[in-house]
Amino acid sequence: MQSVLDRLAKRAVQAVGQKPIDGGAFIDLIKVHDCLTCADDAAVAALRKTQPTLRAFSINGAQKCASDYRLSGLWGNVPASCKNGTMLLMLNDVGYSLWGWPNRFLARMKDAGVHVIIAQDVVDGQIKGLTDVNQYGDIARTFNGYIWVDNIEELGAALKR
Q1: In sequence order, what are the residues at sequence separation of 6 or more whose Cβ sits closer than 8 angstroms to the Cβ of residue 97?
Q2: How far, in whole angstroms, is CA 65 from its chain's centroid?
Q3: What is the pTM of this model?
Q4: What range does the domain containing 130 cover?
Q5: What residues are paired with 121 via a beta bridge?
Q6: I need a labelling partner for 23 at 20 to 30 A (CA). Which of 15, 64, 70, 100 fits?
Q7: Among residues 10, 3, 54, which one has the least CA distance to residue 33?
Q8: Cα dihedral angle (118, 145, 136, 12), rounded to 10 degrees?
Q9: Are 41 and 60 spatial neighbours (Cβ–Cβ below 8 Å)?
């Protein structure tokens, strides 16, 4: 029976059109390239168990972090669900509902080791990235986290602000 890591590795390399590798080779690959890895909850748990320093997140966990912060951020707290993790925000989520947005919020996240990602939406369990250059205008100029895009060839040049 394949391990969770072996299944994750197989899906990851198939997505980029490479030949299959095992879970150990996958971990080596993401260590070398310092990747932020998105996987399902089980795969993230397996990655964290074997390699606690790897940067991995699940969509559910990253969205829970954002929801928990909205409930407790008013007092300057960063919830346990966020610490040393990832927060996934939808483009229409950024702004006043995030206590301290943008500068205090970003400083709190940095101090807590949180990677912040802004995307357009989550559809059928998949992150949908920005698709239009005009969407960048909805993001604070001081934002220094990750922006998930669907086509970096078309939108990447506009990221150089």
Answers
A1: 70
A2: 11
A3: 0.79
A4: 59-159
A5: 128
A6: 64
A7: 54
A8: -60
A9: yes
